[in-house]
Design brief:
This protein has about 775 residues and is α+β, with helices and mostly antiparallel strands. Helix content is about 35%, strand content about 15%. The chain has 26 helices and 29 strands.
Length: about 775
């Protein structure tokens, strides 16, 4: 016993000598021989340690905002909101100092009494606290830096139970005390300390446990938070309420003992109950956002394209999760809510179908809304991890065939190449294009296999009524005249993109079915392409980010819309004129919105697998699509439905679908656009189209005088016209002879000319017998 006391006294003397010399003169102090719980770890010379603690900015959570500054999501590794000491309640400051280092404002870098006690205890194999608040701050910074750099060895060194670590902390603490005032140190400590449940710093903790800011913490709340720092897991009041409350009471007792509060105040605070059910979680990441797919798209853009945040994707992601950024979008909450309501009403999340609505401002590219029928991110029924509005490079799905919405690209390419709105073709209800010649980017080719294009329309159609009624057998010949290469290049130029990310020209310039929407594209690229026409030929890339600022108010560059003129304004004006037809007298007439002039197009995919409606004004462009879901779990449902969406009532939403684009227009596009348009303060009108562009180029029809009908057709082909044969009776031209042409003189470029062939003289009508009057009473027919 006596020997133990003598050893203890000797050790205390050694420690005092070491620390005294260390503090007084900074002498080189050998301490390698001192035993530690970690074995042989030691520091041979204090001079070998850095003289200052290299601080890195404390990680802070970033927030993603809607256009009205409401929070869309939080991004963070550590849920922290840095606040100056002036915004942290005085009672919180007092509580933390009281329980961790009550003489903090009286001593220097260390509390000699506490440190001696801890050093001796540790040297005897019993870990004990005693570090000053400054030393604790040093340790937290070192641990933070080690975790940030993913340095396991540095983290172990920062947390090991050794005298070497304490001496190292002490040296740093001395430097910190020289660099900062006591209040500045306390501010840093309160902002870096971990308070459990993922809450770093007192502001995040106050909001999490009590739903208040750190500035408004009261006595029982402050005492509870102050008690958490030492062991935030074991004393967590949410998971261990009794332990947490007892720890709070210990802090209150300590504050009363130090005369910071009175005994009555302590008793009153102890009587305050803690309700774990009122704890508020700020769940991080997009899966927990109310708009997870908008959030995820924004995060993908931040990571892939926001080069101002860092040189690599890893650097950008780290800045987002640790930089305390304020990231603002132009998502209109009213428009988004309306769009989501409309989608969910018509296509339930559990239906074997998919519904999507996307909207943007064509003049800026800023996305206004992005809604889909499965709005929750996850793997449960009715959930998905796919954003159906975007491509695979942004966590999108397979995309959707566009149907007749692609006719706009053919019309635009035609107008751009001198074909006018009066360019006309004789349309049949059904036509097989096998053997017909088309022009790709690598040359002309013939359709080798049977390809029959159907449509109920029969007669002569031009670009106006061919667009309004979405006449397939008008647009295939028009595409044939213009050339697939020019059509697909224009589609790419105005912003249409394949969901796969492949080049649409390389993949589809040899597909005659392009005009009928054979390519799987993204809804977001669809509104980009149509928005180019709405913006008079200026393409603006879709933009989800409006601004990015840091905690100091500094701004980062956001990915730009890169608005460029890609189509002549006069051509776009003509396209807009033509595509008002579907709304005024065509397939979208039931989707008109009173007070607005709209242009757009419907689209129906073969076998009615998907249906589209696209509408736009100069200030807003929107697309609505309903598609069958090709996921294998719905294979059985669709197996018996050869026409897919045609005549189907979806099982959960109970929406009846005709399978044609007008469904998406009337049921989804119209109500969604109506709300979004109402939120726009000023509306622009379409610019009137120039007659010269609408009329296009003209060409003279060659004379076929003296020719047979087959020679006449050959002459028309040589002059750049297509032709068809029509038969009439003639009393002057024998059967099989050429009567004439349906059009002569100067006609619009590319028009189809009818070659009129004689059927011979009209036969005499056969005589009819007079019917015998019936004695039966007349009956009214039933229909």
């Amino acid at each position: 016993m006596r020997m133990g006391r003598r050893l203890y006294s000797l050790l205390m003397f050694a420690v005092v000598s070491v620390l005294g010399g260390l503090l007084a003169a900074g002498l080189v102090v050998p301490i390698a021989g001192m035993a530690t719980t970690a074995g042989t770890s030691a520091v041979t010379s204090l001079d070998e340690l850095p003289t200052a603690l290299k601080e890195t900015p404390q990680p802070q959570r970033s927030k993603l905002l809607n256009s009205d500054d409401s929070v869309l999501a939080y991004f963070y590794d550590e849920n922290r909101i840095y606040e100056p000491l002036s915004k942290i309640s005085k009672i919180m400051q007092q509580a933390q100092v009281a329980i961790e280092d009550h003489r903090f404002y009286e001593h220097g870098a260390m509390d000699l009494q506490g440190t001696l006690r801890a050093l001796v205890s540790t040297s005897q194999g019993n870990t004990q606290g005693g570090s000053s608040l400054t030393q604790q701050y040093v340790r937290l910074v070192l641990v933070e830096q080690a975790e940030e750099s993913n340095d396991a060895a540095a983290k172990a060194a920062a947390t090991e139970n050794t005298l070497a670590r304490k001496v190292r902390e002490l040296r740093y603490a001395i430097a910190v005390e020289k660099q900062f005032t006591k209040d500045e140190i306390l501010e840093r400590y309160l902002n870096i300390a971990y308070y459990g449940d993922g809450a770093y710093g007192v502001e995040a903790a106050a909001r999490h446990y009590f739903g208040v800011s750190a500035a408004n913490l009261n006595l029982p709340q402050a005492a509870m938070l102050a008690g958490l720092v030492r062991n935030p897991v074991a004393s967590n009041p949410r998971t261990h309420t009794q332990v947490g409350v007892q720890r709070r009471n210990d802090v209150l007792d300590r504050m009363a003992e130090l005369n910071i509060i009175t005994a009555d105040q302590a008793a009153e605070a102890k009587a305050t109950k803690f309700n774990p059910k009122k704890v508020k979680f700020y769940l991080k990441g997009c899966a927990n956002s109310k708009l997870p797919f908008i959030c995820d798209y924004a995060l993908q853009v931040l990571t892939q394209q926001a080069t101002s945040l860092g040189a690599t994707e890893e650097e950008r992601l780290e800045r987002v999760y640790r930089g305390g950024l304020t990231i603002t979008t132009e998502i209109d909450p009213k428009a988004q809510k309306a769009a989501q309501k409309v989608v969910s009403k018509n296509v339930d999340a559990r239906d074997p179908a998919i519904g999507v609505i996307v909207m943007m401002d064509p003049q800026t590219g800023l996305i206004k809304a992005m809604a889909q029928s499965r709005p929750e991110m996850g793997k449960k029924k009715g959930q998905t991890y796919y954003n159906y509005a975007v491509g695979k490079g942004f966590n999108g799905a397979d995309g959707f065939q566009g149907g007749s919405t692609f006719k706009m690209f053919v019309a635009a390419a035609a107008l751009e190449n001198g074909f006018g709105v009066q360019t006309s073709f004789h349309v049949k209800a059904s036509k097989n294009y096998q053997g017909e010649t088309f022009q790709s980017c690598s040359g002309s080719f013939k359709v080798r296999d049977r390809w029959v294009v159907d449509g109920p329309e029969v007669g002569t159609y031009n670009m106006y009524n061919g667009t309004a009624q979405s006449v397939n057998n008008y647009y295939v010949p028009l595409e044939q005249k213009v050339g697939l290469c020019k059509v697909t290049k224009l589609a790419k130029r105005v912003g249409l993109q394949l969901a796969s990310g492949q080049d649409i020209v390389d993949e589809y310039s040899n597909y005659p079915s392009f005009t009928l929407g054979a390519a799987e594209i993204t809804p977001l690229s669809m509104i980009t392409a149509y928005g180019t026409m709405a913006n008079r030929g200026t393409k603006c890339n879709p933009v989800i980010l409006k601004s990015i600022t840091n905690t100091d108010g500094g701004k980062y560059d956001v990915p730009d819309a890169n608005c460029k003129q890609v189509v002549d304004p006069e051509i776009a004006d003509a396209v807009n004129k033509v595509f008002q037809g579907p709304f005024t007298s065509g397939t979208l007439r039931y989707a008109q919105i009173p007070g607005y002039t709209l242009a757009g197009k419907t689209g129906t995919v073969p076998l009615n697998k998907a249906e589209w409606s696209v509408g736009y004004t100069p200030n807003l462009v929107a697309a609505a699509v309903i598609s069958y879901d090709n996921n294998k779990k719905y294979k059985k449902y669709w197996k018996s439905k050869y026409s897919y969406l045609r005549g189907v009532t979806l099982p959960h939403s109970h929406t009846y679908l005709t399978g044609f684009g007008a469904d998406a227009g009337q049921k989804m596009l119209k109500p969604a656009m109506q709300q979004a348009l109402a939120d726009i303060d000023e509306h622009d009108d379409f610019v009137g189209a120039q007659a010269s562009v609408l009329n296009g180029d003209t060409a003279g029809v060659p004379s076929c005088s003296g020719m047979g009908w087959s020679s006449c057709r050959a002459a028309l082909t040589s002059a750049g016209f297509s032709s068809y044969v029509t038969y009439r009776y003639s009393d002057t031209v024998g059967k099989g002879g050429l009567i004439g042409l349906t059009r002569t003189g100067s006609v619009p470029k590319g028009s189809e000319i009818g070659v009129i062939v004689s059927k011979g003289a009209k036969p005499e009508p056969k005589p009819t017998s007079t019917p015998t009057p019936s004695t039966e009473p007349t009956r009214k027919s039933r229909r």
